[in-house]
Amino acid sequence: VKAQDWLPWSLLLFSLMYETSTFYVPGVAPINFHQNDPVEIKAVKLTSSRTQLPYEYYSLPFCQPSKITYKAENLGEVLRGDRIVNTPFQVLMNSEKKCEVLCSQSNKPVTLTVEQSRLVAERITEDYYVHLIADNLPVATRLELYSNRDSDDKKKEKDVQFEHGYRLGFTDVNKIYLHNHLSFILYYHREDMEEDQEHTYRVVRFEVIPQSIRLEDLKTDEKSSCTLPEGTNSSPQEIDPTKENQLYFTYSVHWEESDIKWASRWDTYLTMSDVQIHWFSIINSVVVVFFLSGILSMIIIRTLRKDIANYNKEDDIEDTMEESGWKLVHGDVFRPPQYPMILSSLLGSGIQLFCMILIVIFVAMLGMLSPSSRGALMTTACFLFMFMGVFGGFSAGRLYRTLKGHRWKKGAFCTATLYPGVVFGICFVLNCFIWGKHSSGAVPFPTMVALLCMWFGISLPLVYLGYYFGFRKQPYDNPVRTNQIPRQIPEQRWYMNRFVGILMAGILPFGAMFIELFFIFSAIWENQFYYLFGFLFLVFIILVVSCSQISIVMVYFQLCAEDYRWWWRNFLVSGGSAFYVLVYAIFYFVNKLDIVEFIPSLLYFGYTALMVLSFWLLTGTIGFYAAYMFVRKIYAAVKID
Known about the structure:
The chain is built from 16 helices and 17 strands. By secondary structure, the chain is α+β, with helices and mostly antiparallel strands.
């Protein structure tokens, strides 16, 4: 059921044109069921963290209903590979089913052909999970872990965790078994009604216990009902990939009453045992950042005051001239760099990314993009990036004018197409590989055309609009004039090397956020829910502060070494933490993921390259603008004849 969209105000206009599924804060649009009302079970997709390729439910020979209908999906759902479809499970509210057979004509078992058996066996060995939903709640498998906290205590505490979806099957001693019986356990919350009214119920939890039961152990009758074997004396249903297999698909339904209110029904899926790790990492980051801020501020401010006082002493001009330092490059520090158009375009895209990420995290922190509104996060991010083209274009245009650029139309086109073009190109190549695998993760051609239309129909005109006004605006006021003849740059020490700068500058911002990075990677690559946007917002603020500080320190050292070519270097060095993100992504791939095939590896590193590029643009832009403000401030503070 669709609740009415509630997009952020900036997207209100577009939501009229493009049908997007809900942004609902849990507690807005519950569905009330009466006794014996049908509760529809839908299938979302099959996923595996080993292959990273989602497939739609009916890509495997499951029982099909008489008519297959797919749900109309929003942009985010399509990009995630969700293909929500109806299933033949007949579930009625608060009505038990002991055991029922699916798709059995005249009591005959389902026969899987050799090809189907091979495909099912392959998906089981690749660790595929099946994802179903009932009333928009994803199915979960309960895992009971026994943790013996105290060795003397004989009582073991049960630690209950939930796994998203259920395993398609399992392997044991080179034999492959399929989970062909599903025991659904649904929890309802009985709503308080007036005496003469019929009770209404709301679904608040959806669990499944998958079982593998051999054909011979299941007793069936003419009415499609069946009897499960008693106790543990049954054998599992083996799938032999070399021959035809016969089996029954069966299910049972059990209802339980629950005290969980509808508004907090997602808490089960979002309970994380490691919230303490988040608090610890954030407090750690805050302490480190403030400590370093204090030290850097003291050193820089004291040194700068001393420098400025020395430079402004009228009577010691002769002594000052013999000294070295950042004042000596005052006639060259604002000399425009090489390729000013590309620099301003990249910084414009960086501003666009910064605005988009800031708004998305803030809106998500307010609870408007909870996982219950499928695909909302991705849809919002795409639209916001398009709309933020105005700010990106404006900042790029103004900077390009400051750097003595003249070809504003070419600059605007470069800003609108350079970074999005690289992203689109990489995604298109990866999409071709996913298409080849017939995965539902492949973006359909109409969606691709729609994205291109958004890029050239919304983003490009907005970037041009912003660029036009930015280019017409007064350029940034540089406090000192640039000399006609460039000054000679003295030979630089080894530690002023660009790569050494990247290594040094990247450590602090990366250290502030790497624990959060682990959870984001788990959400992307291991099909977990990520919802701790409050933490993420704090981490983002810490990242902005630490990038700015490091950038200021690096530019100060560079100017003290009388090297005035700081524009490009500062942009590259400020994004140094992106290099550490790349190293961490490789470490995560080797240690955490069980990916062995070529195409999943290609997908992982393709998407990682996009993440690293975007992160470099983001942190580089933050650092660049901090350094630019700093340089203008310090040169405005010294007297220059």
